[in-house]
């Protein structure tokens, strides 16, 4: 039997029992729509989480922390990162940049009042921490001293706008008691005041609102004077607060993390976080797909029931087809084609329903949260759409296999005698 004849017969038979076929197609459509809707919403949630992480930092970066590897929180064992260790970190393969960081004592921005607490971070020029988030001014340059890059919220305490704050001289009182929110921290050492010039203002929304970026040497000097030591003493005794390693490509991050751990330090990378998110959302999508699969299973039972009824109702017709020379494989192909048409129609309708429902849910969420305005809550890509259609077709073919096999094996003589 030619393919065109087969499809024409199948389409005519599906349309013959119109109400039954429509109900069966709706069952497949609902199952497909549920699969598309749940997986698309999970994919949208994953994309939003990843987008937030991407905005925090570069996936090529590895942060070395002054703790032994394999421990965190209260169980973390501190270690000192000295210049000797930094030299070894620079020799790790695929590391293209090494940037030290030192956290100076907590303090206060005097121009902002007692509530303007600051956490000075001593960094090196072009450090990953000090890239791409400026709203005014510039970053810290090589060899500069007594300069600072303020968060926008603190800059507004110094001048009406971020641009106006650039170039102003402010006073940082570091050490001693500091008020953070409603809590007053005793601090350590004797407070000292440092006049610094604001050279830049950064967007504080992706970082701490109390963080102030200053040159690394200034941070070491402030900490040393707070404790009555020298900057060299701080490098040797206290060590650095952390080191950022920049790799050639994110694919080398895992190897660099392993090398850092072999040197005895804890290492952290956003690349690892992304991989954990992928694993977690993979399981989540599987669970949601299983929930939608239950609906498709119910639809498959409906398809099987419809096809069995079709075989019983058309028993004499099957006998006549066999009597005039139709091969058993033609009978099987005919009923499988009818099941496939139900799957295709149901899959297309289900995909449309899923898309419509997803857009409606996305619009409701945007209306409820107009300020957040997430870029993509409901994500349907080509693999998901094609996969949903293929799943609907596969379920229909599986459900129609036994009825088609029964029709194929039916005796022509018995079929002609059937009443």
Molecular structure report:
The longest helix is centred in the last third of the chain and has 44 residues, at 270-313. It is elongated and about 110 Å long. It has 13 helices and 13 strands. Strands 1, 2, 3, 4, 5, 6, 7, 10, 11, 12 and 13 form an eleven-stranded mixed sheet that branches. With 419 residues, the chain is of the alpha+beta class. The mean pLDDT is 83. Helix 2 (18-56) packs antiparallel against helix 12 (382-409).
What is the N-to-C order of secondary-structure elements (H for helix, E for strand)?
A: HHEHEEEEEHHEEEEEHHEHEHHHHH
Given helix and strand content, the structural type is: alpha+beta
Quote the beta fraction: 15-25%
Q: Can you give the mean pLDDT?
A: 83
Shape: elongated
Low-confidence stretches are none
What is the alpha-carbon Rg in Å? 34 Å
Distance between the termini: 27 Å
Q: What is the helix content?
A: 40-55%
Give the secondary structure arrangement, pairings included:
Elements: H1 3-16, H2 18-56, E1 61-65, H3 83-90, E2 95-103, E3 107-109, E4 117-123, E5 134-137, E6 147-151, H4 152-158, H5 162-165, E7 169-174, E8 178-180, E9 183-185, E10 192-202, E11 211-215, H6 216-227, H7 231-238, E12 242-247, H8 253-262, E13 266-268, H9 270-313, H10 315-323, H11 328-368, H12 382-409, H13 412-417
Parallel strand pairs: 4-11, 6-10
Antiparallel strand pairs: 1-12, 1-13, 2-4, 2-12, 3-4, 3-7, 5-10, 7-10, 8-9
């Amino acid at each position: 039997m030619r393919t065109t004849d087969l499809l024409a017969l199948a389409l005519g038979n599906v349309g013959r029992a119109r109400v039954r076929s429509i109900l069966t197609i709706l069952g497949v459509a609902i199952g497909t729509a549920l699969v598309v809707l749940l997986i698309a919403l999970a994919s949208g949630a994953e994309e939003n989480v990843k987008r937030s992480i991407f905005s925090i930092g570069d996936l090529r970066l590895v942060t070395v922390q002054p703790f032994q590897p394999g421990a965190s929180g209260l169980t973390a064992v501190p270690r000192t990162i000295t210049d000797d260790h930094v030299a070894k970190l620079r020799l790790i393969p695929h590391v293209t940049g090494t940037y030290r960081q030192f956290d100076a004592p907590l303090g206060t921005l005097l121009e902002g009042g007692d509530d303007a607490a600051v956490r000075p971070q001593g960094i090196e020029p072009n450090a990953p921490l000090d890239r791409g988030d400026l709203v005014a001014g510039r970053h810290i340059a090589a060899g500069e001293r007594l300069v600072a890059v303020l968060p926008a919220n603190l800059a507004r305490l110094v001048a009406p706008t971020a641009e106006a704050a650039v170039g102003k001289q402010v006073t940082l009182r570091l050490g001693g008691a500091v008020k953070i929110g409603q809590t007053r921290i005793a601090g350590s050492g004797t407070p000292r005041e440092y006049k610094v010039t604001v050279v830049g203002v950064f967007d504080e929304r992706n970082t701490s609102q109390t963080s102030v970026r200053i040159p690394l040497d200034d941070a070491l000097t402030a900490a040393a004077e707070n404790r009555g030591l020298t900057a060299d003493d701080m490098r040797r005794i206290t060590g650095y607060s952390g080191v950022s390693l920049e790799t050639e490509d994110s694919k080398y991050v895992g190897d660099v993390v392993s090398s850092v751990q072999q040197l005895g330090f804890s290492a952290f990378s956003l690349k690892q976080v992304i991989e954990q998110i992928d694993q977690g959302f993979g399981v989540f999508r599987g669970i949601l797909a299983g929930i939608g699969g239950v609906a498709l299973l119910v639809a498959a039972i409906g398809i099987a029931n419809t096809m069995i009824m079709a075989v019983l109702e058309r028993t004499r017709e099957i006998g006549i087809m066999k009597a005039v020379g139709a091969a058993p494989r033609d009978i099987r192909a005919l009923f499988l084609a009818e099941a496939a048409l139900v799957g295709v129609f149901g899959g297309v309708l289900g995909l449309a329903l899923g898309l419509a429902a997803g857009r409606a849910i996305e619009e409701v969420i945007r209306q409820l949260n107009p300020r957040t305005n997430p870029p993509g809550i409901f994500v349907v890509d080509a693999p998901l759409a094609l996969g949903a259609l293929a799943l609907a077709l596969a379920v229909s073919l599986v459900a129609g296999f036994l009825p088609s096999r029964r029709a194929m094996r039916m005796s022509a003589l018995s079929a002609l005698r059937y009443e």
